[in-house]
Amino acid sequence: MTLEDFKKIELPRTPGVYLFRKGGEAGAILYIGKATSLAERVRSYFSPDLMVSRGPRLVKMLEEADTITFETADSVLEALILEAKLIKKHQPEANSREKDDKSYWYVVLMKEDFPRVLMVRGKELFGLSQDDRYLPEHLDETYGPFPQASELKEAMKIIRRIFSFRDTCELGSARECFNARISLCPGVCSGKMGKEEYRKIIRRIKLFFEGKKREIVLEMQKEMFAAAETEQFEKAAYLRNKIFALEHIQDVALMKRGVSPSRTGYRIEAYDAAHISGTSLVGVMTVATGGELDKSQYRKFKIRVARQNDDNKTLEELLSRRLKHSEWPMPDLIVVDGSTAQKNTAERVLKAHKLTIPVAAVVKNAQHKPSHISGDSALVKDHKTEILLANAEAHRFAITYHKKLRDQLP
Fold first, then answer.
1. What is the C-alpha separation between 213 and 223, in angstroms, rounded?
2. 242: which of 216, 310, 335, 355 is 20 to 30 A away, CA to CA?
């Protein structure tokens, strides 16, 4: 397969899983991979340094492949789970590493009254250790293989914030475990939750790993409406929040791990500001190019004119000063943190400089988590993951710069 062949395939800039095949769309699967942006990730396979960066195994695979198929996912987390599911089902030769399945990681649900949910290395499952806890007779379900332990750990953190579960705590304790106190365990250790209710959580975790998120949402919506009708408003609100979390999975850490390398690509600039001890202000610009954070392009600004708590004036100064730097590459999209007011401010500054760069605004909820993105719907759809990544990085960078300067104050 060549770059020209690839250019004929229309891949979306959304998370998902791609499959290199030999013999057409129904042909043999040679390799399966996941992506933050399918278009950018697959394009990276046609870079001139593929042999150096990926090795002869994938170069050989690319020579044999004649087509690419794909499945989209709502989030990078779901792409990660889908990748593992498809690798387990099809076991493509090019997905095997220098080691074998024993070097991969798996998620296991124990066969217990209150099942623990654990991360386990393949060697434990395949009998290469002295630990017999993970023999088949002790397991309810197994999900994997997951190639990277670090990615799986991040994924489990996200899943646990949606579906709190038991992992290491002991049953029959007089006190809740630490994870129960921070809402990461439902409190089965101290008897706060019974077996039937906990089994419902475990069932939903299973459905999630099977890629059946829509089934979970519909089930929880039905339960939420029933709770509201019987005036169990606290339960209804709890379920509403869980449904929202499922439909708006925030997997920024996985986005960072899943971005693909690129020497050119779509440039997004994100802006944010922070106060220093309630007096001074700083602003920052972060850049994502081709779906990848480019820290060499980041910029810091000490705000000179705008007063604190005047977000629009701060943004106006920040953008105006940035746009004076014609030697910097111009962005394809500008991302601001805030509501319609901040978006309108950015567009006004751009118009004053006779520029027609589109603007997207990441609107936050009371917990300062993204609730939605306002802007051109097609652009937002195509670049949602990069927008959220750049926005989250701008917030992190602004806080880091703020703390550094604050520490220098007398």
1. 15
2. 335
pLDDT of residue 262: 38
Phi first, then psi: what are they for 286, rounded to 5°?
-115, 160
For residue 145, whether the previous peptide bond is cis, meaning omega lies within 30 degrees of 0, is yes
Strands 370-374 and 359-364: antiparallel
d(CA 257, CA 259): 6
Cα 170–172–176 angle (5° rounding)?
70
Edge-to-edge strands of the sheet including 67-72? 28-35, 16-22, 67-72
DSSP 169: P
Burial class of residue 224 in the structure, from the number of CB atoms within 10 Å of its CB (0-12 exposed, 13-18 middle, 19+ buried): buried
For 387, how many CA atoms within 13 A lie in the half-sphere containing its CB? Answer: 29
Per-residue model confidence (pLDDT) at position 236: 92
CA geometry: angle 289, 290, 292, nearest 5 deg: 65
The whole-number mean pLDDT for each consecutive block of 10 residues of the chain, a chain of 410 residues, reads 73 91 93 89 75 66 91 93 94 70 85 94 76 82 88 90 92 88 90 93 96 94 94 91 86 61 70 70 86 85 72 89 84 90 94 89 86 88 87 88 67
pLDDT at 409: 58
- Side chain identity, residue 113: D
344: exposed, middle or buried (Cβ count in 10 Å: 0-12, 13-18, 19+): middle
Beta partners for residue 35, in sequence order? 16
For residues 283 and 271, the answer to whether their CB atoms sit within 8 Å is yes
SS3 (DSSP) at 372: strand
Nearest CA to 357 among 366, 348, 365?
348
Residue-level length of the chain? 410
DSSP-assigned states of every residue in 30-44: EEEEEESSHHHHHHG
